[in-house]
């Protein structure tokens, strides 16, 4: 089930990390446009030099180190992937963050010094598309850029499980972002048994292929179930399904959270 050594995200406790596969199923384009926004110029230079020689990566503009210029640069270049470090994120104003929320075609990969479950909470709160330690080797950086450009959510399974196991984590998100609200009991009740089984496996961090294998169905069938779940819960991303089902399960456990078949 786990081909982590081939698809691993980073070393250490999160070594068995794999990208999630959300609603967007389109193939990645031949050339991926990337913009770098790091408060630390030396790190920005190192990441740029490691990516710009890749045949399918196009770096747009100069690295942005000034938070007040980021929105202007985003509107000018419209990159497919924005590499944003935590230091610059902390300096962004509400207008810049709102623009990113309203323009999900610009996929944000947050780069942090320390990958912890608080960093995962930040990714979910801001509706970013992934989390990557600053110390990640060049090959992993490239894999992460490719993954988020395809619409995948690049997160550590270990960290995601740690976040979900913390009873307070959804409450912090709900307080920080009023648009993140629990799915109503009626909404969860509209899910079929099979859809609930898919949701339970999402919360374990399973990919579409792994869900299909566990449930004994085709991967396309899993995608259809996911589209139905998204529509019923009023969300667009797998992370939002995980969040809403976690909030809902405080009062009524999600069906299908059982031992693997």
From TrEMBL:
GO biological process: regulation of DNA-templated transcription
Stretches assigned to the HTH luxR-type domain: 184-249
Matches recorded under InterPro entries: Sig_transdc_resp-reg_C-effctor, Tscrpt_reg_LuxR_C, WalR-like, WH-like_DNA-bd_sf
One family name in Pfam for this protein: GerE
Keywords assigned by UniProt, alphabetized: DNA-binding
GO molecular function: DNA binding
Keyword rRNA-binding: no
Gene3D superfamilies according to UniProt: 3.40.50.2300, Winged helix-like DNA-binding domain superfamily/Winged helix DNA-binding domain (1.10.10.10)
Superkingdom classification of source: Bacteria
Name of the molecule in the record: DNA-binding NarL/FixJ family response regulator
Organism the protein comes from: Aerolutibacter ruishenii
Lineage: Bacteria, Pseudomonadati, Pseudomonadota, Gammaproteobacteria, Lysobacterales
């Amino acid at each position: 089930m786990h081909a982590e050594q081939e698809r691993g995200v980073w070393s250490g406790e999160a070594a068995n990390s794999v990208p999630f596969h959300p609603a967007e199923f389109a193939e990645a384009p031949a050339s991926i446009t990337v913009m770098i926004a790091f408060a630390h110029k030396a790190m920005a230079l190192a990441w740029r030099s490691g990516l710009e020689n890749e045949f399918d990566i196009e770096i747009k503009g100069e690295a942005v180190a000034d938070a007040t210029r980021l929105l202007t640069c985003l509107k000018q270049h419209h990159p497919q992937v924005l590499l944003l470090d935590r230091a610059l994120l902390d300096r962004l104003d509400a207008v810049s963050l709102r623009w990113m929320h309203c323009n999900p075609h610009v996929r944000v990969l947050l780069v942090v010094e320390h990958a912890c479950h608080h960093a995962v909470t930040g990714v979910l709160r801001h509706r970013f598309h992934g989390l990557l330690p600053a110390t990640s080797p060049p090959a992993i950086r490239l894999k992460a850029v490719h993954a988020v450009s395809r619409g995948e959510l690049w997160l550590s399974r270990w960290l995601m499980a740690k976040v979900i196991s913390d009873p307070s984590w959804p409450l912090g998100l709900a307080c920080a972002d009023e648009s993140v609200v629990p799915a109503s009991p009626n909404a969860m009740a509209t899910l079929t048994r099979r859809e609930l089984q898919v949701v339970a496996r999402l919360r374990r961090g399973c990919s579409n292929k792994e869900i299909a294998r566990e449930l004994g169905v085709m991967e396309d069938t899993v995608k259809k179930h996911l589209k139905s779940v998204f529509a019923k819960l009023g969300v667009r991303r797998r992370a939002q399904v995980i969040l809403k089902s976690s909030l809902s399960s405080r009062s009524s456990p999600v069906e299908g959270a059982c031992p693997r078949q």
